[in-house]
Amino acid sequence: MSISISGNSYGHGYVSSSVNNKQYKVAEETCLADVIAEEAMMTPEQKMMYELMGGREAHMKNLMRSYNSDGDYIGPGGIIVPGMHHGRSGSTDRSTWQQIISVSDEARQKMFDNVKREFIQENGISNGDTTKRSKIFREYQLSVKKEDRAKGTWTLQQYEGKYRSAMYAAVKAANPDWEPGQSFDSSILDSVTRESVESNLVQSGNQFVRKSVDYSV
After folding, report:
1. pLDDT per residue over 100-131, tens digit each?
2. Which of 18, 37, 162, 192 could disulfide-link to 24, CB 3.0 to 4.6 Å?
3. Residue 52, CB half-sphere, CA atoms under 13 Å: how many?
4. Could you tell me the sign of the dihedral formed by the alpha carbons of 27, 21, 145, 78, in that order?
5. How far is the CA of 51 from the CAs of 31, 39, 67, 101, in angstroms?
6. What percent of the chain has pLDDT over 70?
7. Domain coordinates in residue numbering, the chain
8. How many angstroms separate the Cα of 90 from the Cα of each of 72, 94, 105, 115?
9. How many CB atoms are closer than 10 A to CB 87?
10. For the chain, how many helices (H) and strands (E)?
């Protein structure tokens, strides 16, 4: 017998109360086909246990928890800031969010300070175990309107990369034999400021490029 998403086999009361709910609608649109496919693969014993645990109704309710009342994907426990999900498997057209927009001086300065602190602390190596960048990105995302969050995060990432490149270039200019991971005189970076880096950037498409390179000390 085929499985239906209405009637007693699914929980008619649940469908009738949720059909106009954005959480339900987006979960249905993005996940229901996979749920049905999973159910079709179940053995009779698995299907019996599935129904005892609440069946499709319970499964869909659990999936709905990954969306907020506006239908935004926020992930399990709400770990993703609304507006930052790029579709299943990153399927959203990148051109819609990989755009350069204005980002506040405050956010850019926080990112610059973090890059400098980590560059000195880790001797020029990007260490995923100690970085605080995720906190800075999240604070920024929550400070701007939803439709600007992905674009602004992309832009802030472009600045972040240029800050790090400028610091690398400055240390290399002072000591051509230096390699990331080796200690260096942190005073070399006194000449590298956020303003000096940004004044040397121009936009090229959806990225920043340097106008020139001059990090002599």
Report:
1. 999 999 999 999 999 999 999 999 998 766 68
2. 18
3. 6
4. negative
5. 18, 10, 24, 49
6. 85
7. 9-80, 105-210
8. 15, 8, 29, 27
9. 11
10. 8, 2
